[in-house]
Amino acid sequence: MYRSAFFAFTLAASAQLHPLQQIVEAARADSPRLKDLLSRGLPGLKGRDGALVWGQDFLFAVEASTPASVWVDHQPAVAMKNLAGTGIWYKLMALRMGTTHHYEYFANGKSIGGYEVAAYNPDAYPLPGAARGTLSPEHRHVSKIYKGMAARYWTYTNPGADTVRGAPVMVWQDGETIGGDVDLIRLRLQIVSDNLVHRKLIPPMVHVLIAPGEGPEAKGTRMRSIQYDTVSDRYGRYVLEEILPEVARTHALRTDGYSRAIAGASSGAICAFNAAWYFPDRFSRVLSHIGSYVALQWKPEQHQEGGYIVPYRVRREPRKNLRVWLSDGADDGESFAGSWPLQNIQLANSLKLRGYDFHFRFGTSVHAIAQGAMDLPEALAWLWRGYDPARTAETFEMEPEERAKPLFRVKVANREAW
Asked: How far is CA 192 from its chain centroid?
């Protein structure tokens, strides 16, 4: 299984402790080893993803040329320690579990970056006795549907997945954040999915982790918004006609929609929803975190709708056989493209009005994966509940508990309503 030099180093250093735990313990003791552990490749030391979590221990780290401080959850900023001989500043804190924590770094009195981090669910830590899956090497694909676009992808295969007769499949957008070390400080899909398989809460499956491509349509840069935010069947065809057939050369995959799910965050979430919307017979389960159901690829001069149209299509068009886990936070983004929180609420109400089997988790999160990471064990177990490998179809119905609840209502929380 692939590991970067950073985690290969940490694993070799100690067979007893998890790599993240080693770093936390070195920080607690102000150990000279911390320099090696942190300077060998911790992702995101520019402010985004600059936090490591192990239980209640949160290690914040950032690069800065002058003394740095960190602000957490609206509390006064606290000074950080310098890692001798480096430009890295760090602070170890004990924080409450079962929630998300917002942080921001400062140097010279100015913000130098921040994000939000999850206090992870216990299923996001390796469970004793749970076998670990296999991450493939990086694969590269040159697309015909997105002419000339090159993209990377990986597979992560849970232990016990039937890759001879056919395994269930879950496709993930922004796969580069799951296929490498960054998964440990963001979603933790690899650990979570293996734990849930071990607990028999989800079937063992093949996770296909697809990174956005680069190509001529984006003038040689990332194609992410063109691929993800465009409301059409194009991305779904790309996955179904190009990527999955390549994966199927080495892994036998189930082809029934009942055994396939698709997931993403932000633009990757609307991308996942659209793929299932256009191909419900091929993807019946959708995981959407902080979905960008806004006008990022709205091009009226080309008669191209933006993502804002999705909730209205759900309301107006016949119900499709989809099961959807949807989540967002009240502090998500606002821009000229639209309102992330309001559009997610719109989509949730549309799903409810049409009688979909859906679950909406609305918290206080900003535009970050933290809430999605905290909820991931519950979300995956809910999406795959009742899965029977002997079946190829199921008609999804709204749960009685959801049916008894009212539509979502909006209140102004941060200023006077009159």
From this structure: 12
The token pair at 168 is 């269930």
3-state class (DSSP) for residue 91 = strand
Q: Across-strand partners of 78?
A: 70
Nearest to 103 by CA among 62, 43, 147, 163: 62
Domains 5-119 and 128-403 share a fold: no
So what's the pLDDT on residue 38? Answer: 79
Specify the CATH class of 5-119 in words: mainly beta
Fold of 128-403: Rossmann fold (3.40.50)
Q: What's the mean pLDDT in 78-104?
A: 93
Cβ atoms < 10 Å from Cβ of 415: 6
Angle between helices 19-28 and 5-13 (to 10 degrees): 70
Contacts of 155 (CB under 8 A, 6+ apart): 135, 136, 206, 207, 208, 209, 247, 251
* Contact by Cβ (8 Å): 143, 149: yes
Rounded Cα–Cα distance for residues 393 and 73 (Å): 45
Beta strands 285-289 and 260-265, pairing class = parallel
d(CA 354, CA 213): 35
* H-helix or E-strand spanning residue 335: strand 334-335
36-61: per-residue pLDDT in tens? 887 665 555 656 678 999 999 999 99
Beta-carbon count within 10 A of 131 CB: 12
> Could you give the 3-state DSSP secondary structure of residue 210?
strand
Q: Alpha helix (H) ranges present in 217-266?
A: 224-229, 234-238, 244-247
C-alpha distances in angstroms, 386 versus 155, 218, 380, 395? Answer: 24, 42, 12, 12
Mean pLDDT of the chain: 92
Helix (H) / strand (E) containing 373: helix 370-383
Mean pLDDT of all residues in 289-316: 96
Cα gap 392→254, rounded to integer Å: 9
Per-domain boundaries in the chain: 5-119, 128-403
What is the Cα gyration radius of the chain? 22
Which residues have a Cβ under 8 Å from the Cβ of 109 and sit 6 or more positions away?
A: none
- pLDDT one-digit tens code per residue, 368-399: 999 999 999 999 999 999 999 999 999 999 99
Asked whether the beta carbons of 253 and 169 are under 8 A apart, the reply is yes
Amino acid of residue 107:
A
